[in-house]
Amino acid sequence: MSGGEGFLSVVPEKQVREVRAAMRRRNFSKGEVIFHDGDPGETLHLIEKGHVAIRRSTPLGDTVTFVILSAGDTFGELALLRSHSYRAATAIALEPTTTLSLGKAKLDELRSHGPAVDRFLQAALAAQVESLSARLLEALYCTADKRILRRLADLADIYGPNATDTPIPITQEDLASLAGTTRPTVNRLLKGLEGEGLLTLGRGSVTLHDLPTITRRGR
Fold first, then answer.
1. How far are the Cα atoms of 28, 30, 48, 50, 180 from residue 97, in angstroms, in the given order?
2. pLDDT tens column, 15-64
3. Which class in CATH covers the domain with range 143-217?
4. CB–CB of 1/68 below 8 Å?
5. Whole-angstrom Cα distance, residue 144 to residue 150?
6. 27-30: which pairs have CB atoms within 8 A and are 24 or more residues apart?
7. Sequence-distant (≥ 6) Cβ neighbours of residue 138 within 8 angstroms
8. What is the architecture, at CATH level 2, of domain 2-138?
9. Helix, strand, or coil (residue 37)
10. DSSP symbols for 146-188
11. How far is C-alpha 217 from the chain's CA centre?
């Protein structure tokens, strides 16, 4: 999962138009599954509009959300690095979302022209490892409350200038997964923040009112 403009920037300039022409624009409604865990890995997706959650079910039947992606991010690319590979997680549109998808055959063709695309994919994998390592350190050394506050600040970054005073479509279950804690812990903290006027809880959403305070408390 990585920046989509970064992906296009590593494509040779003379091929950018060809690659864009090969991409298929796909529209997804809120809550629609883009692909399921275990599906064949056949396409890379570049988010043109909207937000996507990457999730996986646990053996106990719970759902874990790994990351929320926004416009400009790519996802699904790592399943294309091996032949006969399958998706390792489920991708779901959190709101009306548009992606540009690129098939494995075209990606393999680009990779055959030089090392730039492979370097980009390697960087995407390295970024995932770095992110997972950072989350592991947080889980070991930061309180659950601080992790929740940090994920709220992260969501504000993901949703950009409109994040303040605009409902962000995130459930408490998703936030608990992102913070590596439980829903009751998330609910307790969010209720407290709501009581202070720092945010407002909605059905399947949270509206941030005082991002500087939330960010400061998460440090």
1. 5, 7, 8, 4, 26
2. 667 777 778 999 999 999 999 998 888 888 989 999 999 998 878 777 88
3. mainly alpha
4. no
5. 10
6. 27/96, 27/97, 27/98, 28/93, 28/96, 28/97, 28/98, 28/99, 29/93, 29/96, 30/93, 30/94, 30/95, 30/96, 30/169
7. 146, 147, 150, 180
8. Sandwich (2.60)
9. coil
10. HHHHHHHHHHHHHHGGGGBTS-B---HHHHHHHHTS-HHHHHH
11. 24
58: its two tokens: 């646990």
Alpha-carbon distance of 111 to 11, in angstroms, equals 9
Q: Where are the domains of the chain?
A: 2-138, 143-217
Cross-strand bridge partners of residue 75: 45
pTM of the shown model? 0.81
Residue type at 207 in one-letter notation: T
DSSP string, 188-215: HHHHHHHHTTSEEEETTEEEES-HHHHH
Asked whether 65 and 53 are in contact (CB, 8 A), the reply is yes
Cβ atoms of residues 89 and 57 within 8 Å: no
The partner residues of 52 in beta bridges, in order of sequence, read: 69, 93
pLDDT in tens, 97-129: 999 888 888 878 877 777 777 777 777 778 778
59 Cβ contact list (under 8 Å, min separation 6):
none
| Residue 100 contacts residue 48 (beta carbons within 8 Å) | yes
